[in-house]
Design a protein that fits this description.
The complex is a heterodimer of chains A (about 110) and B (about 110). By secondary structure, chain A is an all-beta fold. In chain A, about 0% of the residues lie in helices and about 50% in strands. With about 110 residues, chain B is an all-beta fold. Classes of the chains: A mainly beta (about 110), B mainly beta (about 110).
């Protein structure tokens, strides 16, 4: 029962570096999403996808790119890291059915940008 | 603008001392309201989904209720292992979830 798997768990970047946070789910969920969690701000939606080939922006998309080439994978790319992107990142997936829309979360990636 | 507000920000209870957490929301096109539990260093874990005013769900010492403008998470006779941050979220039309900032609960033995 892997569920939602995120890698890496921790990452330190220098300003201007790029990297990709990986997210994979094995539950055949159509919906996948990325959140960042900052103290006092709660979870904020960065990008989401309702199926392979379909992505859309959430509340805080600037500085992040996503793509969805398969149902299982939804990587988040930081193009040029900035200190403001220091945060904990969570990937989450859901099966959008009549009464089964709850999110399943990964264990998170703690990112520090120096 | 869709908004979710949780109160209080933090709550300290003695073991066995019952209380309630509040989640008020202002959204258009509510599809569902969700409660999650988050332990330090971990991802949120699903507790309940509520879809319509008047609905109630229970699990062990927790009971969630929903009205047209708010939801309550009632904790009856809490134990130290109930200590965690409790998050409320709403799902709106457009397939977006909006989260509140959470209530940090500490239960003292």
């Amino acid at each position: 029962n892997a569920g939602v798997t995120q890698t890496p768990k921790f990452q330190v970047l220098k300003t201007g570096q790029s990297m990709t946070l990986q997210c994979a789910q094995d539950m055949n969920h159509e919906y996948m999403s990325w959140y960042r969690q900052d103290p006092g701000m709660g979870l904020r939606l960065i990008h989401y996808s309702v199926g392979a080939g379909i992505t859309d922006q959430g509340e805080v998309p600037n500085g992040y790119n996503v793509s969805r080439s398969t149902t299982e994978d939804f990587p988040l790319r930081l193009l040029s890291a900035a200190p403001s992107q220091t945060s904990v990142y969570f990937c989450a997936s859901s099966s959008f059915g009549a009464t089964n829309e709850k999110l399943f979360f990964g264990s998170g990636t703690q990112l520090s940008v120096l | 603008e869709d908004q979710v507000t949780q109160s209080p920000e933090a709550l300290r209870l003695q073991e066995g001392e019952s209380s309630s957490l509040n989640c008020s929301y202002t959204v258009s096109g509510l599809r569902g309201l969700f409660w999650y539990r988050q332990d330090p260093g971990k991802g949120p874990e699903f507790l309940f989904t509520l879809y319509s005013a008047g609905e109630e769900k229970e699990k062990e010492r927790l009971k969630a209720t929903l009205t047209k403008k708010e939801s309550f998470l009632h904790i009856t006779a809490p134990k130290p292992e109930d200590s965690a941050t409790y998050l409320c979220a709403v799902l709106v039309t457009g397939n977006q979830f909006y989260f509140g900032t959470g209530t940090s609960l500490t239960v003292i033995p």
